[in-house]
Amino acid sequence: MKKHMFLLLLTASVFSINAANAQTTQPYEMTVSGVKVIVQPSGNDIVEIQTVIKGGVQNYPAAKAGIESLAMTGLTECGTAQQDKNSFKNKLEKLGAQISAGTSKDYSVVRMNCIKSDFEGSWKLYVEALTMPKYDEKEFARIKQNALTGLKRMESIPDIAIDNFADRVAFEGRAYAVNPSGTIESVTALTAADVKAYYQGILTKSKMFIVVVADLDRADIEGKVKAMLSGIKQGAPFTLKKSFFRPYKSTFSADSRELATNYIEGVTSGPQPGEADFDAFNIAMRIFYDRHFLDVRTNNGLSYAPQTRFAVGTTSVAKVNVSTTQPDKYIAVFDKLVDKTKSGGFTEDEVKNMKATYLTGVYYRNETNSAQAGALASNEVLFNDWKRTNNLVDHIKKLTPTQISDAFRKYIGNMVWVYQGDTKKVTPTLFTNGTLHKADNPVMQ
């Protein structure tokens, strides 16, 4: 499974468009056996198909975290009702096709990529994996052990560990606190029978839609999808829930660790998909990234790779990350920068340059069929509007410095701060009370 690749694609695709190449025909949607099918003609000989199952962490309790991830991995790694894993993969390899799956906090994707001449054979294997997974006990034990090894490895990577820690603290009591990969405890408890039953439960038409980026005949698509869906139940009506996040006070949580440096992450509000200022805030955070990098690294030498980002999902938030040996000095610089940005806003030149940079990146990212399909999928899930992928450019071009500055002021406020490292080197009250305008604060003197 290309899980890390899937997550990177998911992050980029929320803001992508599919107008990178001139299209001979327009994208369209149709309903087949109660399931929405979104079709984007590609203008090339590559076929990309993505079946999306909505829900993510809303589909299972925290105690079962990791179950959907294992279910997705097992589709191609545990054999099918018709053949074992090796036979399946050998056929796939002969075709030169790819079938993979991945999961996020909001949805999972089962994807197929092949050349048009191999579509018939590749589609049969795709349907087999999607609708007839076996979850063989022996193969399941292998992927489960791989998952546990991966969890241990992730916990040893500070950048990943701090982000998981931040999510657990910031979203405590919410579904978003759950890591889709699970925990050592939750994954250890899962069995092949558990995962098979779970997958059968989420594979429903009510949670599903399909994206096709390819030059295929409409009737052929409709016929193949109808046949695939014939054995899939309708399921109960499902709505993916969105949740706004706002900290009403700044908090600080520390985890003492022996690390070469100290890791800090802050989480605060962001507009939810569909809000009027969503795109404005996206641009604001990108400009703030540049300001933050300049102030923290270039001007003060406090961190090698400071970051800020707009983490988009059904609970969208702004995040700030830094690794530093001087956490107290960092928070002083950060607070001052936020104060300056709120007071002065963003300049016309900053906005003009960032809009150009952003849109260039959108076109660049969207050169492949896979990226186009990912953009359509993410916008359909999060915005309930796959067509947003085609009109995003116009929305971005219309944004003004005032709109972008106001969006930053509206959402950047109290922060949930988490810290991993030497707790003797940090003063928590500087993070919870702020450092600005405090004459008795030695950091600011």
TrEMBL record:
Belongs to the peptidase M16 family. Keywords: Signal. The keyword Signal applies. Residues 190-357 form the Peptidase M16 C-terminal domain. Gene3D superfamilies: Metalloenzyme, LuxS/M16 peptidase-like. Residues 46-158 form the Peptidase M16 N-terminal domain. It comes from the Bacteria. SUPFAM superfamilies: LuxS/MPP-like metallohydrolase. It holds the Pfam family Peptidase_M16_C. It comes from Mucilaginibacter boryungensis. The keyword Transmembrane does not apply. InterPro entries: Metalloenz_LuxS/M16, MPP/UQCRC_Complex, Pept_M16_N, Peptidase_M16_C. This is Insulinase family protein. Residues 1-22 form the signal peptide.
